[in-house]
Amino acid sequence: MNIFINIYLGDKMKKSLLAALVLGSAFTLAACDQAKEKAAEVKEVAAQKADEAKAAVSEKADQAVEAAKDAKDAVVDKAVEVKDATVEKATELKDAAANKAAEVKDAVADKATEIKDAVSDKATEAKDAVSDKAAEVKDAAAQKADEAKEAAAEAKDAAKEAAAEAKDAAKEKAGQAADAVSEKVDAVKEAVTK
């Protein structure tokens, strides 16, 4: 709107100057045309019209100068208004940007806290899962070790039992062999004595 007012004031001033020039030109042309038709009347009318034109031009020039001064003052006033409005708007935009930046910063901080808490919870869950799995593996290993110990003890007992049985069998066989040898010796002795 300020631009339209400035253009309007500029156009108004231009129109005033143009009107003064057109009026002066019209008077001059009118005087020239009448001079051709009536030479005597033209001199009087021309002098009169020239004076009137001079007065009109002088008046219009004064009006144009006054209009230019008014337009200049209006432009300066509008420029000051525009400057003040621009500074005010810039301050508003700066404050709005600062507020928005603070909101974004807070939102980012909140999101970072949420992510940190979520990661911490997941890490705790993973740690607990690993701990539980380690306990299961440990228990399974202990159970397998116990089973292996029991199997070794059973194997040892079976080996002892087998060794005792083999020893007893060997003694029995040795006794039987000794008896057989003894019987053979007796038979040989008997056969020799006969």
UniProtKB/TrEMBL annotation:
Record-linked Gene3D superfamilies: 6.10.140.1430
SUPFAM superfamilies attached to this UniProt entry: Apolipoprotein A-I
Signal peptide as annotated in the record: 1-30
Start-end of Basic and acidic residues biased regions: 148-174, 181-194
Region (Disordered): 148-194
Key words of the record: Signal
Protein name from the UniProt record: Late embryogenesis abundant protein
